[in-house]
Amino acid sequence: MANIEVSATAIWYDAQIGGNILPDETSLTNGVTYYAAKKTINGCESGDRFAVLANIVSPTLDINNISIVICDNLNDDDEVIDFTIYESLLTNCSDCNFNFFTSLSGAENYYEDQHMTEPTSYNWSIETPYNLRSN
């Protein structure tokens, strides 16, 4: 299950006794208790289930919605942009780590192919989507 780290292999359930096995892709729901049984070396399951109450905390960081105009200085359909200079406009957080993506879905899902590996020298071209995002 996402965001739960277990030092042994676990089988997750929706009930203390009986219940349904939860798929690994199950999204956690705030305020719901999930139950884990340890999977033993020989593939069996422990008799006891450990209760875990999901408490999902919403981010408290204030983010500004900004719009930036980028000019093609040489009119050559190409520009090198340093996106890190806009970080202070996005939020007043001094110890945040920024990752930049070429789309909103890339940022929300951390798509590697849309992750800017060099946000200090991003090569924008006329073919580049105009919808650049940070997460």
Describe, in plain words, how this protein is organized in 3D.
With 135 residues, the protein is mainly beta. Helices cover 7% and strands 24% of the residues. The longest helix has 6 residues, at 104-109.
What's the SSE blueprint?
Elements: E1 10-13, E2 33-39, E3 45-53, E4 78-81, H1 87-90, E5 100-101, H2 104-109, E6 122-125, E7 133-134
Describe the structure concisely for a colleague.
Helices cover 7% and strands 24% of the residues. The chain has helices at residues 87-90, 104-109; strands spanning 10-13, 33-39, 45-53, 78-81, 100-101, 122-125, 133-134. The two termini are 23 Å apart.
What are the key terms here?
7% helix; 135 residues; mainly beta; 2 helices
Query: What fraction strand?
Result: 15-25%
What is the number of helical segments per DSSP (H or I, 4+ residues)?
2
Global geometry: elongated
Helix content: under 10%
Structural class: mainly beta
Quote the distance from N terminus to C terminus. 23 Å
Mean pLDDT: 84
SSE sequence, one letter per element: EEEEHEHEE
Q: Report the radius of gyration as a whole number of Å.
A: 22 Å
- Sheet with the most strands: spatial strand order: 1-2-3
Describe the main β-sheet briefly: 3 strands, antiparallel
Q: Indicate the low-confidence ranges by residue numbers.
A: none
Number of strands: 7
